C-alpha cells in the first residue's frame, strides 16, 4: 500500500473519533499494514475495545494530552474545529486531514477502486460486492459502513489493487475519492443540515460522477428518478452501466418471492439472460442492491459462480433487517432505517415476513433530519399496526426545542396511525411485554441506539 503523505511506516497516526465505523476501519487497515495508531472517542465500545486488543492506543474522551508523539491527525466531519485535540495539533504544527481526504489518499494506492454511493443502500450493496469478491482470488481491501460476518467486522485489509468502499455524500466527502468504478444506488433528500435542497444534492452527485476517469465506469440505478435526471442532463466521460427492474441495461426479470420475502430473479444484460439469483435477504430494494453489486462484478470480470454464490450466501449486514432472536414466539428484528424512504422499504419487507402484528419501535435520528423531512416521516408509517416513538437521537446535534419526537407523534396520530410516544427504553420494553403476543414481530428501527430495546426485550 502506498500513501502520498506517508513515506515510512514508522509514522504515527492519531484518529479523533476512532470509534466510528469508518474511522475504525481506516485504523485497522493501517495497523495491519504496520503503522502505529492511536485514537480517541467519547465513549468506549466493542469497536474501541477491539482496536485496543489489536494494538491501538485508545483514549476515552477528547483531550489535548491525547496528542503524544504523533505525525498526523485524522478527524471525522462530525468533529468541531474547537476540539481540544485539533487545537493541540495545530499548536504543534502536526498535519491534519479529514477522514474523507485520508480515505481518498489510501484509494490512490489502488487501481480498482469501487466507490458505492447513494442516499440509501450503500452498506448493503457494498457488502454484497464484498461477498462476491471473497469468492475471487484477489486479496481485496474492503471498508464497509456496517459489520459483515464474512469479513469479521467492517474492514478487510488486503494487499492487492482492489479496494471496495462506501462513498458517503454527507458534507460532499465523497468528492475527495478516486473511483475507478462508482455506483449510485439512488439520490434522495437527506443531510439537509448541509445541502440547500435536492438540486444541490444532485449537483454534488454530478461532480462525483465527473471524478471517474475516461477508462472508468458508473453503475447507476436508472429506476430512480433523481439518478435518471442526473444522467440525462449531463455528458460524462466514463462508461455508464444502468440497472433497474423495468429499465436499464442490466435488469431483473421474472422476480418471485419466498415465504420470507426473499427474491429469486433472472439477470438480463440487454436481451441476454446471464444467470439466476436467489437472495437470502428480503425486499424489492435488495433486488436493486444486488443489481448494483452484479454490475460492478461484471465490469471487474468476476466469474458467474462468484456472483451467484456470493449473493446466495449473503445473509445481510448487521443492523440491516437483522434477526436478533425469538422470545415467547415474538420475532425480534433490527434495522438501521432512519430516512422516510428507507423506513417504507423496511416496512414493506417486514410485511412480507411471517407475522401476526408488527410492533415498530422507531428512534428518529438527528433534530435537523426530523425537522427537514417532518411530513415525509409522518407519512412513512401508513397502515402500521403499532408504532412506538422513542426520543430523537441527537448524534452530533444539540436540542434547540424546535422539534421533538412528541411533535412527530402528534402528526402521525392525526393520520390515524396507532402511535405512542415513550421516552425511556425500560418503559418501552414494559409496554412491549404487555402488548406483544405470540406470532407478532418486534421491529426496532433507527440509526442510533434503539437496537438496545430489542436486546433488552430478548433478555
* CATH fold naming of the largest domain: UDP-N-acetylmuramoyl-L-alanine:D-glutamate ligase
Mean pLDDT: 93
Low-confidence stretches: none
Q: Structural class, from helix and strand content? A: alpha/beta
Name of the CATH first level of the largest domain? Alpha Beta
Tally the helices.
Answer: 15
Spatial arrangement of strands, main beta sheet: 8-7-9-6-10-11-12-13-14-15
- By CATH, the architecture of the largest domain is named 3-Layer(aba) Sandwich
Distance between the termini: 45 Å
The profile of the biggest β sheet is:
10 strands, mixed
CATH superfamily of the largest domain: Mur-like, catalytic domain
Question: Level of helix content?
Answer: 25-40%
- Rg to the nearest angstrom? 22 Å
Count of DSSP strands: 21
Broad shape: globular
Number of domains: 3
Percent range for β-strand residues: 25-35%
Give a structural overview.
Helices cover 32% and strands 25% of the residues. It is an alpha/beta fold. It has three domains: 12-97, Rossmann fold (3-Layer(aba) Sandwich), CATH 3.40.50.720; 108-312, Mur-like, catalytic domain (UDP-N-acetylmuramoyl-L-alanine:D-glutamate ligase, 3-Layer(aba) Sandwich), CATH 3.40.1190; 322-458, Alpha-Beta Complex (Protein-Tyrosine Phosphatase, Chain A). The strands form three sheets. A ten-stranded mixed beta sheet has the order 8-7-9-6-10-11-12-13-14-15, with helices on both faces. β2, α2 and β3 form a beta-alpha-beta unit. The longest helix is centred in the middle third of the chain and has 16 residues, at 284-299.
Amino acid at each position: 500500500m502506498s500513501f502520498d503523505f506517508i513515506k515510512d511506516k514508522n509514522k504515527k497516526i492519531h484518529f479523533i473519533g476512532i470509534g466510528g465505523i469508518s474511522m475504525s476501519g481506516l485504523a485497522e487497515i493501517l495497523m495491519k499494514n504496520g503503522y502505529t495508531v492511536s485514537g480517541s472517542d467519547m465513549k468506549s465500545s466493542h469497536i474501541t475495545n477491539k482496536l485496543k486488543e489489536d494494538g491501538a492506543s485508545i483514549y476515552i474522551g477528547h483531550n489535548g494530552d491525547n496528542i503524544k508523539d504523533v505525525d498526523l491527525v485524522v478527524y471525522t466531519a462530525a468533529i468541531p474545529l474547537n476540539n481540544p485535540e485539533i487545537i493541540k495539533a495545530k499548536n504543534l504544527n502536526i498535519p491534519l486531514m479529514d477522514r474523507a481526504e485520508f480515505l481518498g489518499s489510501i484509494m490512490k494506492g489502488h487501481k480498482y477502486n469501487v466507490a458505492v454511493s447513494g442516499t440509501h443502500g450503500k452498506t448493503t450493496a457494498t457488502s454484497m460486492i464484498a461477498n462476491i469478491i471473497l469468492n475471487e482470488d484477489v486479496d481485496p481491501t474492503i471498508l464497509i459502513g456496517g459489520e459483515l460476518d464474512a469479513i469479521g467486522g467492517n474492514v478487510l485489509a488486503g494487499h492487492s489493487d482492489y479496494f471496495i468502499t462506501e462513498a458517503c455524500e454527507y458534507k460532499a466527502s465523497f468528492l475527495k475519492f478516486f473511483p475507478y468504478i462508482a455506483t449510485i444506488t439512488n439520490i434522495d433528500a437527506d443531510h439537509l443540515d448541509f445541502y440547500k435542497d435536492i438540486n444541490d444534492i444532485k449537483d454534488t452527485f454530478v461532480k462525483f460522477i465527473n471524478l471517474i476517469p475516461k477508462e472508468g465506469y458508473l453503475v447507476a440505478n436508472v429506476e430512480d428518478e433523481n439518478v435518471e435526471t442526473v444522467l440525462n442532463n449531463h455528458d460524462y466521460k466514463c462508461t455508464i452501466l444502468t440497472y433497474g427492474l423495468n429499465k436499464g441495461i442490466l435488469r431483473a426479470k421474472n422476480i418471485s418471492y419466498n415465504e420470507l420475502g426473499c427474491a429469486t430473479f433472472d439477470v438480463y444484460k440487454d436481451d441476454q439472460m446471464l444467470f439466476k439469483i436467489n437472495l437470502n435477504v428480503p425486499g424489492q430494494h435488495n433486488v436493486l442492491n444486488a443489481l448494483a453489486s452484479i454490475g460492478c462484478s461484471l465490469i471487474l470480470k468476476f466469474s458467474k459462480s462468484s456472483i451467484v454464490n456470493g449473493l446466495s450466501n449473503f445473509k445481510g449486514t448487521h443492523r440491516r433487517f437483522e434477526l436478533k432472536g425469538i422470545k415467547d414466539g415474538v420475532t425480534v428484528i433490527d434495522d438501521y432505517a432512519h430516512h422516510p424512504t428507507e423506513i417504507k422499504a423496511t416496512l414493506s419487507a417486514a410485511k412480507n415476513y411471517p407475522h401476526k402484528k408488527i410492533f415498530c419501535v422507531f428512534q428518529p435520528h438527528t433534530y435537523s433530519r426530523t425537522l427537514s423531512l417532518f411530513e415525509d416521516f409522518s407519512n412513512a408509517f401508513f397502515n402500521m399496526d403499532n408504532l412506538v416513538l422513542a426520543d430523537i437521537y441527537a448524534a452530533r446535534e444539540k436540542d434547540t426545542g424546535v422539534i421533538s419526537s412528541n411533535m412527530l407523534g402528534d402528526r402521525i396520530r392525526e393520520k390515524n396511525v396507532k402511535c405512542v410516544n415513550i421516552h425511556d427504553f425500560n418503559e418501552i420494553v414494559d409496554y412491549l411485554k404487555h402488548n406483544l403476543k405470540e406470532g407478532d414481530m418486534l421491529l426496532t428501527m433507527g440509526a442510533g441506539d434503539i437496537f438496545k430495546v430489542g436486546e433488552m426485550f430478548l433478555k
